[in-house]
Amino acid sequence: MVDFTFKRKAFRIRECAFCGINEIGNSKADVVYLHSTDSGEKDVSKSIILQKQYTLLTDLKYSEEELLENIKKNCKYEIRRSEREEAQVHFFEKKQLCENLEIIKRFETAYNQMFGEKGLSRYRFNRKLVEKAIESNSILISSCTNINGDNEVFHAYLHDNDSCVLMYSASPLWGKNNKDKANEIGRMNKYLHWKDIQYFKNNGFSRYEWGGITDPDKPNGIDKFKMEFGGRVIQCNNYIIPISLFGRVYTYLVRRRSSEK
User: Fold this and answer.
1) CA–CA dist 204, 197 (Å, integer)
2) Of 3, 49, 4, whose CA–CA distance to 241 is shortest?
3) pTM of the model
C-alpha cells in the first residue's frame, strides 16, 4: 500500500494506492486520493468522487521471454536498436534522490516544458507530492539518455512492495526541429519502459500498471504507444474522499472544475 500526506495550497492531501476503500482507516487529512483500486463501488456516498479508469496491466509473473514476446514487433525492434546504440539507463530510489536533488529539477523542467509546448500547462509537475513520495520511499524515478548523455527521458512510478503505477513521463520535444532526434527519443522512451519492466520484475514486483488509457476501443496516440507493450486492459476505480469540512470544499471545487471543461 502506498500511503503519504502532503500539502496542496491550504489542503492536506493523503495519497493512497493499491488498497481497498475500507483499508484506508482514519485520516487527519482533508482529502484522501485513492488510486488504482479494484474495490467495488458499494457504499460510496454522494460526497465521494468516483473516477472510473481504463488502464493496462503488465503481469510481471511471466518470464522476461514471455513479456518480450507480447511486445509488438516494431516496438521490439526499437528497443533492440536503442540497446545497440548503447542508450544509458539509470534508476533512482530514495537514497540517490535525497543525495541528488538535481535529478528532480531536471525531471520537473522537462515535464513542464513538454506540457507547456503542447498547450497543456495546467498539467504541472507536483513537486510537493514527489518530495513526500521520496520521503515515504514510495517512488522510483528512471531516466535514459543516448550514449553522449543527451536527450534525457524520464519516468516516475508510485509503488509499494508488489505493485507499481506510472505517474509521470517526460521527454524532450524535438519533433518540430529535428526528426532524427525525435525518433531517437521515441526509441529511448520505449527502451526505458522495457528496462523499467525488467527492473520491477527482478525486484519481486508482480503488477506493472501503465497509468491509465482513455478508451481501449478508440485509443489515442499515447494509448497506442502503451498498447505496443501488450498489457491487458483492466478497469480500476480512483476515489477522491473528503474527510473534513475543508475536504468537502475541495471536492466541490474539483466537481465544478470538471463541469467547466
Assistant:
1) 11
2) 49
3) 0.91
